[in-house]
Amino acid sequence: MSERRELLLKAISETAEGDRSSLKTVYEMTSGKVFATIVRIVRDRERSEDILQEVFVKVWSRAGRFDPAKGSPITWLCTIARNTALNDIRRSDHVVRTPDGALPEITDDEARPADEWLCAMEDSEALARCLEELQDDHRRSIKLAFFDGLTHSQLADRVNVPLGTMKSWIRRGLAGLRSCLGG
Length: 183
Known about the structure:
Keywords: DNA-binding, Sigma factor, Transcription, Transcription regulation. This protein has helices spanning 3-16, 20-42, 45-62, 73-92, 113-121, 125-133, 136-148, 152-159, 163-181. By secondary structure, it is mostly helical.
């Protein structure tokens, strides 16, 4: 285990015990990645800053629930960030807008283990390479599903395909990614 990960695990554990300086450590070590996850979904810097604060309030109250046996600390944090950003979009009925011809990324209304898997992998070079190997429809659908916060229904409407087709593209794309990444 890397020294940085050990430090983050220790800081989360101490945060669970009510140590405010440890929460500051968690924030300093992870806020850049967490913020990037939020901005990618919300597409609004000011709203993203507010959501970032909300995420770390949640981290403060939920640190005791983190289980390192179930995943990495950054995956746990990104999942909280992603879900908080998606909830913000849904509360405000905000629709992510993209330029004509650009296919946005989608999200299903239910949490999936793939969310955590993709969140942990999204910045890796291997993921970027594997995404490029997917069929265009599958690649764009996955990006929209996991990084931009649209539901399967929203994406199907946007690209004018049946919902079943959209779900199939995402399922096949995820299978291709898992195969490519050896997961």
